[in-house]
Write the structure tokens for this entry.
Amino acid sequence: MWAMIVKEFRQLRRDRRTLAMMIFMPVLMLVIFGYAASFDVSSIPVRVVGPQAERIAAVLPPPFDVEAADPEGTRAEAELALRDGEAPVAFVTDAEGVTVLLDGSELFVANATKATLSSLAERIPGDVPASVQVLFNPDLETSAIMVPGLAAMILLFVGTVITSLGVVRERQAGTLEQLAVMPFRPRDVFLGKIAPYFVVASIDMAIVVVAGALLFDVPFRGSVLVLALGALLFLFVTLGLGVLISSVSQNQGQAIQLALMALLPQVMLSGLIFPLSSMAAGVRWIGYLLPLTYFVQISRGVMLRGAPIDALWTSFLYLAIIGAIVFGLATLRFRRQLAPARRHGRLAEPVEVAA
Amino acid sequence: MTPLAQSIGVTRRFRHLVAVDGVDLRVDPGEVVGLLGANGAGKTTLIRMLLGLLPASDGRVLLFGRPPSRETRRRIGYVPQGLGLYDDLTPLENLAFARAAFGGALGELPAQVRPLARIPVGRLPLGVQRRVAFAQALAHGPDLLVLDEPTSGVDPLARARLWETIRGAAEAGAGVLVTTHHMDEAEECDRLVVMAQGRVVGEGSVEEIVGGARVVVVESPEWERALEALEGAGLSAALVGRTLRVPSTGVEEVGHALDGVPAILGEAGATLEERFLELTLAGTAA
Amino acid sequence: MTFGVRGVTVRFGDHVALDDVTLEAPPGRVTGVVGGDGSGKTTLLRVLAGALSPDAGEVRRPDPGRIGYLASGSGTYPDLTVDENLVFVATAYGVHASEVARRSGGYLERIGLAGARDRLAGHLSGGMRQRLGVICAMVHRPELLVLDEPTTGIDPVSRADLWWLIARAAAGGAAVVLSTSYLDEAERAASLLVLDRGGSLAAGTPEEIAAAVPGTVRRLRERPGGGLAGRAWRRGARWFAWEPPGSPPGEGEVVRPTLHEAVTVAALARELEAVGGGAP
């Protein structure tokens, strides 16, 4: 039995991907549960509008963090600001008191605000009565924010994991080489390979959205076209990632390992589950690098708040740029493996393994 | 002399299929026996019974005079078609593992392989991999060697060298059982056993098996017509260049089947492969 | 038009896979490339088929639509049925579906797959899969058919069928190039190229190669000793030894070399040259 143990260790030592996973996963979990996994909101950005704006702004205690106090601002403007995602909370002041508008799509911030207000006995220091109104997700249902997130996750999963498996399967079967010799253009092979996954991912997402509306009463307030555009850009990113992963994997096992390592951090750190605002600043920047973060914002913004495209333009821009880079790289790598090219291999590298 | 491996009237049934049907086989010390058969002939099943991996439905299997057991496993060296090496371990590590499993001495790598002993097996050329696999199988001094397609894929000189190793083991007293699909390899054995449909359909040296089998050689400027005519008459022919070779028949029958297609007929000795195919197809028809 | 390669060299990093190799593949003939693992035959076939560009030399091949290629290790999709595999290849090459049925029907029947068109290729035996692979490579009637080790590891019955398919393709006018490590098969080819570690060892018809052995080959009764051992090899129960030209005659009966002896001598000569030896 000892022989088996020794052998396994030796094989493990050489399996770089598994080793990477064994180191990467605990580190990831540490980061997540140490710094990121929190539903506590430490600071709540706030807009204050109305005649009493400056006075109220001065006395609002932490965790409220006043970003702007605009005495000329109206309630309508405040609502727009919430819809466009500029701030999650707005205090609308007038002669009688304050109406607190909460963005229901920011579930945890909204809950935190309600909790703070009730601890202040629904009054703002200076004895100003405050009444609360939740926009966009009045019952503060978790399903409302999860369903858009799920739609995003499906695109990520199908795009990255499933696509990489499908493309790697070609290499495993040894048929990739045959394709290289057939009268296909590399473009035909590339697009032909990812087209089915594109279709499946889109259909899956549509099902999730419709099911959300029918079963969980999740609203769809915004423009379908805007969401579709966001989904398209995000798909470029995920499909490109899937193809890239397959281009550095020899078999499905390796592809799955890489795909999971690409998937898990995104799910955990993109604001899908734990709000970005709850993450420690030192870790939050990771979230801002992940493509999923931006599509979740688009998805929630469009579905729950009916945000227009110009409100979400930063997300769209980021996705477009990342998409162009990732998809471009994937195309290049794929072409190189398919078009008659020189291979730069090591001595005695088995010929069956593609570069 | 007790045979090292022996099957006496061995039969193996799987539900509706009789995979091995009353096969007598023996391997004595010092001899190299080749087992030849098409897919589905029962070779693999027979081997598995001889190795003790599968029980026989009828008949007896004896290894070193006794039924197979864990002890007999230690006296067998087996090299499967996939070589049985771990691709991500080096030759030395593979040998160490084998030693721990079988006991005995650490296998010795042939001189040419030693400089490569610390490279993972998966990155070594096939010929080298085979030599490592042999070294591993021979390390614990087995009395019986079972080799599956031992030299598939290597060039003729390397094949001759590998066979020197196999012969060396036989000369030292071991018995060797080789299964193969290729005639080049079959010709290296002392004795051949040809199986078809679970039965032994031929046994002996290459010359004995080929016997006086002859084929009819057909040279025709219209080979396609000739081929169609022959196949229409139920005669299967092999096409070599533009010449047809028709086994299991005589010049008259062929001439009759050709019926008008211009051709020159002759006779030639059958090759081992042609004889083997003849036996296999006859076995299937039986 | 005769296809082939001339003076082709291919390097992977420091490793020279092919060194100034020339191969002629005339139409209507079967040309064999013989060599073991590491000889460069897969690389040569890939260059010929257009899957790889050489570092030097020229390649003569028809357009991709007129080439048929079977990579070693089967080129069929295991999760598609026999029919679906055929249709995929045919569509890729622009052969109409009904044409496919017509052309492949006869072949499938011959190899016993006519009733199994709906079976998944992955469920076929290795020999069946290879035969299907060859049919797929042939279905569009290519001018150049390149097959990489189509018969390695395949049982003799399947191999006979494969050769039937191959011979038909050649007799139908295609230039067929196939690689093998078995000399008894190589003898069926009209002409051969023998490769050893990337270099050309011998070329010509099997008879020409056998006749071109330099020096003498002798058959011995037992293993020779001393310096002769480095120039001897065993085949079956017999020992052979090679005497390079100009060396003193030794023991044993002189034999006329067959293709087998010729190739072994050529490989030996190369090896001895590399070591710096020769006649003792």
Remarks:
- The radius of gyration of chain A is 25 Å.
- Residues 341-355 of chain A have pLDDT under 50 and may be disordered.
- Residues 1 and 168 of chain A are 35 Å apart (CA to CA).
- The beta strands of chain A are 44-49, 64-70, 89-93, 98-103, 123-124, 128-135.
